[in-house]
Amino acid sequence: MEKLSKKYKRYWQLYLFLLIPVAYVFIFNYIPMVGVQISFKKLKITNTIWNAPWVGLENFQRFLGSYQFFDILLNTVVLSVYSVLAAFPFPILFALTLNAIEKNRFKKTIQTITYIPHFISVVVLVSIVNQVLHPMTGIYGVLFKAITGRMPDDLMGIPSAFPHIYVWSSVWQNFGYNSIIYFAALSSVDPELHEAAKVDGASRFRRVLHVDVPAILPTITIMLILRMSTVMTIGFQKVYLMQNTLNLETSEVISTYVYKKGLASGVSNDYSYSTAVDLFNSIVNLLLVTVSNTISRKVSETSLW
Q1: Is 261's pLDDT higher than 90?
Q2: Contact present, 132 and 140 (Cβ < 8 Å)
Q3: Rounded to 10 degrees, what is the CA torsion of 134, 137, 139, 142?
Q4: Residue 174 lies in domain
Q5: Disulfide-capable partner of 182 in 78, 95, 143, 280 (CB 3.0 to 4.6 Å)?
Q6: Residue 160 lies inside a defined structural domain of this protein
Q7: DSSP state of 304
Q8: Where are the beta strands (DSSP E) in 128-283?
Q9: Domain count, the chain
Q10: Global pTM value
Q11: Residue 40: which of 15, 12, 59, 21 has the closest Cα?
Q12: Whole-angstrom distance between the N-terminal and C-terminal Cα of the chain?
């Protein structure tokens, strides 16, 4: 206990800085959890959270028994898994490739160019996607007509095309920015390791494979575990903006379903039901991150806890 108090006295400035993120998490993540009880009640506009009648697991049973449950769950899982498989390797490969380039000016220029799309708002990004893929005036429509001589189909109205458009537009927007953490990990690689590999006759590819990749492997593991915690969480805003009546078959996910049931139904808003659906989503995410962390801890020595 004395050692702990000495540590606090010695590093009190650092602990003072720590109070800011702790307060942020407590205020915006823990205090709102009081509202989770709504999912176990029947909340109406005339009630408050405290005097609404308890209904137990009725809201969860409604969702699990809904005819839309499997379709919404499947869409969410497909988009999430597709996003992980497509988007997760790109920042790693990009960081390894660019780190192998020795010209710093060229390297910094490429980094800056690839970072820029991340700062485009979702609304602007969806507008760009709609304009590029427009069958009449977009680049896609003009090129398709010039090559084939006929009018193309509207990709935004094809259900099977929605996952590909959603995922690859996200890959383009975020792979540069997401590579920052891997660049930081690669900067800590001891140059002497590369020099020793050169002496042994290792090619640049071999040095990347046997020096750079092992150095960033713990970072990759941690980032994958964190990514698994959001497998069931699809960004509401982008999906909702890209939705239309034609692609709803594959674009309706849990986040948009919660919004429509809880806030966009007018006088028939069902706050308790939408809260229960969102809580179900959070519980699944918690289970996924726990399982992935346990597997990582057993397979390797890297884990979150």
Answers
A1: no
A2: yes
A3: 110
A4: 79-250+288-299
A5: 95
A6: yes
A7: -
A8: none
A9: 1
A10: 0.82
A11: 59
A12: 23
The model's pLDDT over 148-191, given as tens digits with 9 standing for 90+, comes to 888 888 889 899 999 999 999 999 999 989 999 998 888 888 88
* Confidence grade of residue 4 (pLDDT, cut at 50, 70, 90): low
- CATH number, residue 123: 1.10.3720.10
Domain assignment present for 305: no
Distances (CA, A) of 116 to 173, 233, 305: 8, 24, 34
Q: Give 54's strand partners.
A: 41
Show the tokens assigned to 44.
């109406």
Instruction: Flag whether 141 is in a domain.
Output: yes
- pLDDT tier for residue 130 given thresholds of 50, 70 and 90: very high
- Which residue type occupies 8? Y
Amino acid in position 46: T
Residue 68 DSSP label: T
Query: Is 275 domain-assigned?
Result: no
pLDDT tens readout for residues 247-259: 989 999 988 888 8
| Band of pLDDT at residue 132, cut at 50, 70 and 90 | very high
Q: 131-153: buried (b, 16+ CB within 10 Å) or exposed (e) per residue?
A: eebbbeebebbeebeeeeeeebe
Q: Is 232 exposed, middle or buried (0-12, 13-18, 19+ CB in 10 A)?
A: buried
Q: Which two tokens stand for residue 151?
A: 């009018």
